[in-house]
Specification:
Layout (H helix, E strand, L loop, with lengths): L14 H7 L2 E2 L4 H16 L5 H18 L1 E2 L1 H5 L1
Helix pairs in contact: 2-3
């Protein structure tokens, strides 16, 4: 099982850059997942999610990020 870690929040690099640094890509899901992450943080900051709901949402988002991650071709071949 692959271990990939993503940072969530306004001061974090975009998910695709984080994935690339770890040897992965999010491919065509990168923009969609980045948008979900931004909106999740946004509605939490504005009080529409409790801290627990926010944590649960980030856990689910993390699972989607890992599921979408694919090894970068240049990392696989050499």
């Amino acid at each position: 099982m692959m271990t990939i870690v993503f940072c969530h929040g306004a001061l974090c690099d975009p998910y695709e850059e984080q994935a690339n640094e770890q040897g992965y890509t999010l491919g065509d899901k990168a923009e969609y997942l980045q948008d979900l992450g931004f909106k999740t943080v946004y509605i939490w900051i504005h009080g529409l999610l409790t801290d627990r709901q926010y944590d649960d949402a980030l856990r689910k988002l993390q699972k989607q990020l890992v599921k979408a991650a694919r090894p970068l071709e240049d990392k696989v071949t050499g």
